């Protein structure tokens, strides 16, 4: 494929959750005790909003329903600043550990919480820990049945213990379900030989910025915009430490959290980003202009 035009930005996305919501800590932090923990998601998200405003960039915020219900003013600030509002579910449960009925309740509870906070009926979704995999593809049909039209949950990589579908399409594409079409915008990774370099999250903290920038350029050379993702807790080196977690989970969560905010600012200086919905529309317009027969509807 042809490299992307400079006029099509990459997608900047934020999964709005707190440090104690993460899947890696679910064995140590019971959901029934979430309200007992020091919440830092509001202040950390406001720091991201300030950083994005400084760099005059807008993105897509996948908001946990639990957060929206407790911090409605935060959701309003995100929307007022011009960012796209989307759902990250309500309880941050792995999709493949739910029944279809429980999943439907979770996404509807999240949508209700977000709508109550800011008046927006969300239609885009991202599963906690990208947990729509081969064993939970049924979730796409549930999303369509409940009015969602865009998903960003299927990560086309291998080697992760919680997520990944290595044979999934990497491009923005439409998926047909029994209840309608879902536009899938996969998270991005640059594959070079046997190595994959995902763009965002813990990988952004682990790898030097130069490698992430190289990965973004490589993805764009392949003809598709990159999808970057981050969590508010990733810019918070003062967050309380969760005790007695496995070494691997501890490393993944805390590695370089003290460097992330500055690194993110440097990336925003160098790379064009925008809201996910705007990127999708730009890609669709480009497809219509270059090859009408291949355009997605």
How would you sum up this structure, described in words?
The chain has 297 residues and is of the alpha/beta class. 37% of the residues lie in helices and 14% in strands. It has helices at residues 41-54, 65-70, 72-80, 100-118, 138-145, 201-206, 209-221, 247-254, 260-270, 276-290; strands at residues 10-16, 60-63, 84-87, 124-125, 150-151, 173-177, 180-184, 189-192, 195-198, 227-230, 273-274. It is globular. The model is unreliable at 292-297 (pLDDT under 50).
Question: What's this, in brief?
Answer:
With 297 residues, the protein is an alpha/beta fold. Helices cover 37% and strands 14% of the residues.
Key features of this structure:
single chain; alpha/beta; 5-stranded parallel beta sheet; 4-stranded mixed beta sheet; 10 helices; 14% strand; globular
Protein topology:
Layout: E1 10-16, H1 41-54, E2 60-63, H2 65-70, H3 72-80, E3 84-87, H4 100-118, E4 124-125, H5 138-145, E5 150-151, E6 173-177, E7 180-184, E8 189-192, E9 195-198, H6 201-206, H7 209-221, E10 227-230, H8 247-254, H9 260-270, E11 273-274, H10 276-290
Parallel strand pairs: 1-2, 1-10, 1-11, 2-3, 4-5, 5-7
Antiparallel strand pairs: 6-7, 8-9
N- to C-terminal distance: 20 Å
- Number of distinct beta strands: 11
Over the alpha carbons, how many angstroms does the gyration radius reach?
18 Å
Number of helices: 10
Proportion of helical residues? 25-40%
Strand count, sense and closure of the main sheet? 5 strands, parallel
Low-confidence stretches: 292-297
Shape: globular
Mean pLDDT across the residues is: 93
Query: What percent of residues are in strands?
Result: 5-15%
Structural class: alpha/beta
Order of helices and strands: EHEHHEHEHEEEEEHHEHHEH
């Amino acid at each position: 494929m042809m490299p992307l035009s400079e006029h099509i930005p990459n997608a900047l996305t934020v999964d709005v959750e707190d440090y104690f919501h993460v899947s890696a800590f679910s064995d140590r932090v019971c959901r029934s005790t979430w309200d007992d923990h020091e919440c830092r998601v509001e202040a950390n998200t406001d720091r991201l909003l300030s950083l994005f405003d400084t760099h005059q960039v807008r993105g897509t915020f996948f908001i946990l329903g639990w957060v929206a219900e407790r911090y409605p003013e935060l959701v309003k600030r995100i929307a007022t600043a011009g960012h796209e509002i989307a759902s990250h579910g309500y309880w941050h449960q792995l999709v493949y550990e739910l029944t279809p009925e429980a999943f439907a309740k979770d996404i509807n509870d999240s949508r209700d919480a977000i709508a109550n906070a800011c008046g927006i009926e969300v239609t885009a979704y991202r599963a906690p820990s990208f947990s729509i995999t081969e064993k939970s593809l049924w979730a796409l049909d549930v999303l369509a049945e409940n009015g969602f039209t865009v998903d960003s949950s299927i990560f086309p990589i291998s080697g992760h213990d919680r997520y990944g579908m290595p044979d999934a399409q990497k491009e923005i594409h439409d998926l047909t379900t029994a209840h309608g079409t879902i536009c899938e915008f996969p998270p991005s990774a640059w594959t070079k030989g046997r190595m994959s370099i995902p763009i965002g999250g813990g990988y952004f903290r682990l790898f030097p910025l130069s490698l992430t920038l190289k990965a973004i350029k490589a993805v764009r050379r392949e003809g598709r915009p990159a999808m970057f993702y981050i969590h508010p807790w990733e810019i918070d080196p003062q967050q309380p430490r969760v005790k007695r977690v496995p070494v691997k989970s501890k490393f993944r969560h805390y590695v370089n959290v003290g460097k992330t905010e500055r690194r993110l600012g440097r990336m925003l200086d160098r790379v064009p980003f925008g809201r996910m919905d705007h990127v999708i529309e730009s890609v669709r317009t480009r497809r219509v202009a270059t090859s009408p027969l291949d355009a997605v509807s």
